């Protein structure tokens, strides 16, 4: 009797498609453990606004790379790559199936593909960061869109740190930032990529409902608690969807109803960017997340 070799599964796709639940289902059926691939779920205390599964919702399945950063720390794709590859290799060595789950496309590719990490130039970085402070992330994002549309499509306009990094790489290498992104080949570890998506109108409704639930569940209180431990100083965490909008409301720039509607609007835009990013990867087999036999359909791909 032959046994199928162990290989990871990646459950990826846009926000609000149901990736987390399918990831747990697959881990239970395959004898696996979940490895987080959502950049914002790396942060301790950022639970409600990132739709992080509560402990009971994980149904006894170990989850890795959750709650590993303080909100004052800057998330690093390079550090994530090192930590996650170690985790995946440890799970495989122990006979466990790694189930990579998340919608942060660059983080997923950093694990599965050969991703370059160009050097930095402190003078260029300092100048761009000064510009960021002066004119804001949207203006720099517009400059990036003119110089490298593919990179701009993959980076939120509000993510000033990533925009600065992309512009820095363009300036010091003379190449588009997108040229440093991996060209998908055979996925590392023989990983099977399962993509979840839904009808656009349905997904927009799910996003709106998710945002309503987050605010009802205490997102504002969560942001206040994180503010007390340095959220505003966190370059990455303070720009997260929902958190940025609530901070603006706490500053008196808008009311909470506006913060909620802006969170939903920004999330819908982000979903479209995620879809565009993932659809370029021909290795992904896409499933309609609304199908009743979703788990069996995903298992049939392995």
Summed up, the helix count is 12
Examine the coordinates and then state which fold CATH places here, giving the name of the CATH topology of the largest domain: Rossmann fold
The mean pLDDT is 94
Level-1 CATH class name of the largest domain? Alpha Beta
Rg? 19 Å
The shape is: globular
Helix residue percentage: 40-55%
Strand content: 5-15%
CATH superfamily of the largest domain, please?
P-loop containing nucleotide triphosphate hydrolases
Listing every helix as H and every strand as E from the N terminus to the C terminus, the arrangement reads EHEEHEHHHHHEHHHHEH
| Spatial arrangement of strands, main beta sheet | 3-2-4-1-5-6
The number of domains is: 2
- Which blocks of ≥5 consecutive residues have pLDDT under 50? none
How far apart are the first and last residues' alpha carbons, in Å? 18 Å
**Largest sheet report:** 6 strands, parallel
Class from helix and strand fractions = alpha/beta
Number of strands: 6
CATH architecture of the largest domain: 3-Layer(aba) Sandwich
Architecture blueprint of SSEs:
Layout: E1 9-12, H1 19-30, E2 32-36, E3 63-64, H2 77-93, E4 97-102, H3 105-112, H4 122-135, H5 137-147, H6 149-154, H7 160-173, E5 192-197, H8 200-217, H9 219-227, H10 243-250, H11 256-279, E6 285-288, H12 294-299
Parallel strand pairs: 1-4, 1-5, 2-3, 2-4, 5-6
Helix pairs in contact: 2-3, 4-5, 4-7, 5-7, 8-11, 10-11
């Amino acid at each position: 009797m032959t046994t199928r070799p162990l290989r990871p599964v990646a459950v990826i796709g846009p926000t609000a498609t149901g990736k987390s639940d399918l990831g747990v289902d697959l881990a239970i059926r395959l004898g696996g453990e979940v490895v987080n691939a959502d950049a914002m779920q790396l942060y301790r205390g950022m639970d409600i606004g990132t739709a992080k599964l509560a402990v009971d919702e994980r149904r006894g399945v170990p989850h890795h790379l959750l709650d590993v950063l303080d909100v004052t720390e800057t998330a690093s794709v390079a550090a994530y790559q090192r930590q996650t590859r170690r985790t995946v290799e440890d799970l495989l060595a122990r006979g466990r199936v790694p189930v990579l789950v998340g919608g942060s496309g660059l983080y997923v590719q950093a694990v599965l593909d050969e991703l370059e990490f160009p050097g930095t130039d402190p003078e260029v970085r300092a100048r761009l960061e000064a510009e960021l402070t002066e004119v804001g992330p949207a203006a720099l994002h517009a400059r990036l869109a003119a110089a490298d549309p593919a990179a701009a499509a993959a980076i939120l306009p509000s993510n000033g740190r990533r925009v600065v990094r992309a512009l820095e790489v363009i300036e010091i290498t003379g190449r588009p930032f997108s040229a440093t992104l991996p060209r998908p080949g055979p996925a590392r570890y023989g990983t099977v990529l399962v993509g979840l998506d839904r009808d656009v109108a349905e997904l927009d409704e799910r996003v709106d409902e998710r945002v309503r639930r987050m605010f009802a569940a205490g997102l504002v209180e969560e942001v206040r608690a994180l503010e007390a431990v340095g959220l505003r100083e966190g370059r990455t965490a303070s720009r997260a969807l929902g958190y940025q909008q609530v901070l603006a409301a706490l500053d008196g720039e808008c009311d909470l109803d506006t913060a909620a509607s802006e969170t939903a609007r920004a999330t819908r835009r982000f979903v479209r960017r995620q879809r565009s990013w993932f659809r370029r990867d021909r290795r992904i087999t896409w499933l309609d997340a609304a199908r009743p036999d979703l788990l069996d359909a995903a298992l049939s791909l392995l």
